[in-house]
């Protein structure tokens, strides 16, 4: 009986979602038409855009959240830092402030957004900025640091008023943009044809054991242009959790700790912790969630909280307990890391030589 009830509830859910998609489909068509018209106006010069004679690199996606833009920006910072001076420019999603702002690392996430604050905390020597107007932001960055080498635009793929010199498009394994639909039916914020603007496409969050055959299948599915390169990455998790005072090995975590996530797709993190044979309770919140006073009070009662780096930026000023930790992650390439590094560094060197 219980099995039949579960099957029945699933069937009801599927029917409801199918009916909802039919209702929303006209709105998705309207939204797609508006975005196509906007892109056509930029492509034909009806709407103006700005390009630059120094390296400006864009990291973005076609869908709403959850593709790993933050780890990719951090990867690029690590790649360029030994040789070049780098700045990042983000919109500062979720902040309560407006306009251009240069971070000093002492702000709260409500002032800057969680990702930029994370960049500044991990790379204090990097010029980290936020600003809705990317043209204005780039101008102010260059005014403050004229000899800067590289500017990284975080989540600016749809910001067509700026034409980056190099664009990196991310799409998550298991949620490829080719299998998605336009908002509000799906998660795409622009049509799939927008992928043609990318110099490289990176499939993120792949399983560690993804086969060559599956990579070739995905390559066929994406059907990129001949000049576009395709790469695959996975999430690399640390073996320890950290806070401002200490680090703790995952094996030493107390039983039944509380995992708190406010990110778009926490499933890979949950899967990783379960694979480590850890016992925990998961409190899941929406992406970029602003924790209420009631939620903070409830979390204060927890003996041990593990969260993501982005969530830690929002929680660290509210939860004073030393039992709040974050688990760092890094972007790791599944083969051909050297090819990606060489391609983008060669492009940067060529642009800088031309500028000189």
What is the string of helix and strand elements? HEHEEHHEHEEEHEEEEHEHEHEEH
**Cα gyration radius (Å):** 21 Å
**Class of secondary structure makeup:** alpha/beta
- The level of helicity is 25-40%
Query: What is the correct CATH architecture of the domain at 56-84 and 149-236 and 332-355?
Result: 3-Layer(aba) Sandwich
User: What summary fits the major beta sheet?
Assistant: 9 strands, mixed
End-to-end distance: 75 Å
> What is the overall pLDDT average?
93
Total of helices: 10
The total of beta strands comes to 15
The CATH C-level name of the domain at 56-84 and 149-236 and 332-355 is Alpha Beta
Strand content: 15-25%
Molecular shape = globular
Q: Tell me the quaternary state.
A: single chain
Would you tell me which CATH topology of the domain at 56-84 and 149-236 and 332-355 applies?
Rossmann fold
Strand order of the largest sheet: 3-4-2-5-1-6-7-8-15
Describe this structure in words.
With 356 residues, this protein is an alpha/beta fold. Among the domains are: 56-84 and 149-236 and 332-355, Rossmann fold, CATH 3.40.50; 239-327. The chain has ten helices and 15 strands. The chain has helices at 2-43, 69-80, 109-112, 114-122, 134-144, 212-222, 267-275, 293-300, 309-315, 337-355, and strands at residues 56-61, 86-90, 101-102, 127-130, 150-154, 166-172, 200-204, 229-237, 240-242, 247-249, 257-261, 280-284, 305-307, 324-326, 329-333. The strands form three sheets. It has a nine-stranded mixed beta sheet, sandwiched between helices. Strands 12-11-13-14 form a four-stranded parallel beta sheet. α7 links the parallel β11 and β12 (280-284). 32% of the residues are buried.
């Amino acid at each position: 009986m219980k099995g039949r009830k579960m099957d029945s509830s699933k069937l009801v859910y599927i029917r409801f979602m199918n009916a909802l998609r039919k209702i929303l489909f006209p709105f998705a068509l309207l939204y797609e038409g508006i975005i196509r018209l906007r892109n056509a106006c930029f492509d034909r010069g009806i709407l103006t855009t700005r390009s630059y004679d120094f390296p400006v690199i864009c990291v973005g996606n076609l869908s709403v959240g959850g593709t790993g833009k933050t780890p990719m920006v951090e990867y690029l910072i690590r790649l360029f830092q030994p040789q070049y001076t780098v700045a990042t420019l983000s919109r500062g999603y979720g902040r309560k402030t407006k306009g251009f702002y240069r971070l000093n690392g002492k702000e709260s996430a409500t002032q800057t957004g969680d990702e930029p604050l994370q960049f500044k905390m991990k790379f204090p020597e990097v010029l980290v900025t936020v600003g809705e107007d990317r043209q204005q932001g780039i101008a102010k960055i260059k005014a403050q640091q004229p000899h800067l080498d590289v500017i990284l635009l975080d989540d600016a793929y749809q910001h067509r008023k700026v034409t980056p010199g190099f664009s990196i498009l991310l799409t998550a394994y298991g949620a490829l943009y080719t299998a998605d639909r336009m908002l509000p039916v799906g998660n795409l914020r622009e049509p799939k044809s927008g992928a043609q603007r990318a110099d490289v496409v990176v499939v993120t969050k792949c399983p560690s054991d993804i086969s060559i055959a599956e990579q070739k299948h995905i390559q066929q599915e994406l059907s990129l242009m001949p000049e576009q390169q395709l790469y695959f990455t996975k999430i690399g998790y640390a073996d320890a959790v950290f806070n401002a005072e200490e680090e703790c090995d995952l094996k030493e975590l107390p039983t039944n700790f509380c995992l708190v996530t406010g990110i778009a797709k926490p499933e890979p993190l949950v899967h990783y912790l379960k694979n480590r044979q850890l016992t925990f309770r998961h409190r899941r919140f929406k992406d970029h969630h602003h924790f209420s006073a009631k939620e903070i009070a409830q979390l204060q009662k927890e003996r041990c909280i593990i969260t993501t780096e982005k969530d830690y930026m929002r929680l660290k000023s509210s939860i004073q307990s030393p039992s709040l930790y974050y688990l760092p992650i890094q972007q790791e390439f599944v083969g051909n890391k050297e090819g990606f590094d060489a391609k983008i560094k060669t492009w940067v060197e060529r642009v800088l030589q031309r500028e000189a």
